[in-house]
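In the current project phase, the collection of sequences with tokenised folds has grown. One resulting record follows, to show the layout:
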Amino acid sequence: MLFLRKLCEFYVYGNIHVAIAVWSLTMVTGFFYRINTANSALFIGLSTFVAYNWIRYLKYRNASLQETILIWFNKHKKILVVLNSIASIYLFLLLFKIKMNSLWVLMPFALMTLFYITPIQLTKNKKIALRKIPIFKIFCISLSWSGLVVLFPLTQEAVPIDKSVLLFFVQQFIFVFVLTLPFDIRDVKFDEKTLKTIPQLLGINKTRVLGVFATLVFFGISFYLFSYENMYSVLFIGVLQLFYLVRSGEKKSRFYASFWVESVPIVWFLILKCFGS
């Protein structure tokens, strides 16, 4: 049991789980547009793994890691360096399969991820990271995720960026937005007050209400775009998100959000893989 617990901690704390979640969302895009997004998904998944571990390292350098993660990180620095080095080399090789126009689409979202925690020099004496901008944190995550899993793979497969694609982008933006709310609820006591996260501004109950409203919009856009095609998966995944959102709270364990909530995109992919039309 101790071995399984340590393995699960490494899987979650090492950002493997979140990388698979983003990979899954990219594959979901492929299902709905009936295209092969395997290479794009692998590229985005590995990029997420490297980027999130880079963010973890910067937080470590800035002494801003929570104590539990700090203790774990100190024990596993060497193996993380090895894994990230291997992932970075594979990413470099995958670059040769990526079209130039896809890289241009990728660029703003990659920069958004980079500057999420890396400070931007605004003036001679002032620096700020994107996550420090009041209210912007959740929108930054939602925008970068939805851009990476929608616009990048569709451009790579030469799908025209038309009205339906932009609506699908909005649909995925809302999905990631709701997915992120339990994390903000969990961290409401730890986040700096200047961040003005949604739970800090609205309170936890009103944040849940906002999540319900956003999910209804998510359902509406999905039905408009795809009618009844694979709508069972959309309905199930939306209800599952709301279940996790309603049960989220400040006292939930770190694994509640980092494992169970972040499993929702993986569940969506598995439903489509097993039962999709």
About this structure: The mean pLDDT is 87. Strands lie at 120-123, 126-128. The first helix runs from residue 2 to 13. The chain has one domain: 12-119+127-275.
